[in-house]
Amino acid sequence: MKQLIIFNLIFTISILTFGQDYITEVVEHSEENSKCFYCHGSPTYSYYNDVLERKVTKRMNPYFLVDSNLYYDQNHKSFDCIDCHAYEFREFPHDNTLQMEPMPTCLDCHEGDEAMAHYNFESINDEFHESVHSTKHSDEFTCWMCHNPHSYKINARNNKNVKETIIYDNNICLSCHADINKYQLISPKVNPNVIDMHDWLPNQLEHFAHVRCIECHTHTSDNVMVAHHIQTKDKAVKKCVECHSSSSTLMASLYKFQAQENRRKYGFFNAAILSDTYLIGANRNLYLNILSGVIFGTILLIILIHALLRILLK
Amino acid sequence: MYLYPLWVRLWHLINALMFLILIVTGLSLQYSSVEYTIIPFNYAVSIHNITGIILAVGYVLYLFANRFTSNGQYYQFPIKGMAGRVWKQARYYAYGIFKNEDAPFPVAIGRKFNPLQKISYVFVMYFFMPIIIITGIGLFFPDLLPDKIFGMLGLHLIDLLHIFMGFILSVFMVVHIYFCTIGSTPLSNFKSMINGWH
């Protein structure tokens, strides 16, 4: 009996503690979308071939595969597929000409969107058009080159784990800059090797793990949380003190969101950085600075008085 | 009397030079700024790393030398009565020196250091130096440090400890240099560390 009570107690606590992970969120349009995921969520699909007069099975183009787990965990998870894609996609097999459909950009929906005003999409769009991605490439470079419409999830505002944000955001850059196939969609150039290009950077791995590419490669502004004004490489941050100082630029980029909440905690300059890492030069402490100055000054004063007395009383 | 053998003088000279460079570059890194620069950050990092490695290698050689030569004996003292001897020496520095009293523990062949020197050198060489070197190695290989130590960022705690030790050793250096002026003449002790004769 006693063992049964203990078992029940453990079971109940387990359900209360871990059970929440298994509660499935019911997402709008998931039923309609499931018809799309039937093929686009599987490595193969089948259709009836009128010419052959039989059912054929083909392999799904891997670039047309959509991970439903990622889809239902992203910003636009409540969307019906045909909110963005042509209604005619409901018909199967799809008409081949549908592949040429123009895709909407962020501003097509979010321009003047008061509910999303805090994201400042207009400024993001302006920054993007000033960036090398827009000025040096064709119109094919759209929002979707970086923000995968089927999986993109905002991080900087929502995720308190800065390291996860760094990995997520850097993977967006690396999805082109470390993948020649995607890179050459918009540029005939050979993709430069990211590691070799940053040979000059000391503690390269530490830097890559603790800052995002955009920290050094963008021009920041007050209007936009995550800078989109990617600059040419000659304008990238190369002076260490731009980050390693009390006026660290990281507070205007990576730690912008946290910085609005706490700037100087327990006397540490740029305290928001300390939630994730420690930055020499940027995280000195006001109180310890004063205390060390007072101690050092007092010792020098004692030495001076001692020396003077030695001379005078000789 | 010949008190300081060549290896001690060479080690002391290298140690002092590295110490000065480490203090200047360390301060430059700690107080790095966009507006004013003591030494450009990237140069300060490289110089600090190189001088730190030289200091650490010198320290290991010093430990070996102290273990296998007679120099190590100067750092040994009986605990019993030490407080009284330290007080006697401290009183001399704080009072007796102004009354032209004789030094209570004058330098001799078997007594290179007075009790106050002994205790401070033991703390500096066998306590503060290992900590600053080990934390320095940790900062040189930050990816090897644990993420958290006592709930605090590992890198932050190690750096605070490194800077704290750096501060203590900087204070020691200033006091040490000043006390060296207390000899038969203000420069006599400095000369001794060059020619070896006291």
**Multimerization state:** heterodimer
- Indicate the CATH class of chain B: Mainly Alpha
Uncertain parts of chain A:
11-23
In percent, how helical is the residue content of chain A? 25-40%
Major sheet summary line of chain A:
2 strands, antiparallel
Global geometry of chain B: globular
Summed up, the domain count of chain B is 1
**Which structural class fits the helix and strand makeup of chain B?**
mainly alpha
Series of secondary-structure elements of chain B, N-terminal to C-terminal = HHHHEEHH
Largest sheet of chain B, described in full?
2 strands, antiparallel
Task: Estimate the mean pLDDT confidence of chain B.
Answer: 90
Strand order across the largest sheet of chain B: 1-2
Portion of residues in beta strands of chain A equals: under 5%
What integer value in Å does the Rg of chain A equal?
28 Å
Describe this structure in words.
The complex is a heterodimer of chains A (314) and B (198). Chain A is mainly α. Chain A has a domain at 34-101. In chain A, 39% of the residues lie in helices and 4% in strands. Chain A is built from 14 helices and two strands. In chain A, strands 1-2 form a two-stranded antiparallel ribbon. The radius of gyration of chain A is 28 Å and the shape is elongated. Chain A starts with a helix and ends with a helix. Chain B is an all-alpha fold and 198 residues long. Chain B has one domain: Fumarate Reductase Cytochrome B subunit (Up-down Bundle). In chain B, 64% of the residues lie in helices and 2% in strands. Chain B contains six helices and two strands; from the N terminus they run ααααββαα. Chain B has a two-stranded antiparallel sheet with strand order 1-2. In chain B, a hairpin with a 2-residue loop joins strand 1 and strand 2. In chain B, helix 1 (6-30) runs antiparallel to helix 2, helix 2 crosses helix 4 (115-140) and helix 4 (115-140) packs antiparallel against helix 5. Chain B is globular, with a radius of gyration of 19 Å. The chains are: A mainly alpha (314), B mainly alpha (198).
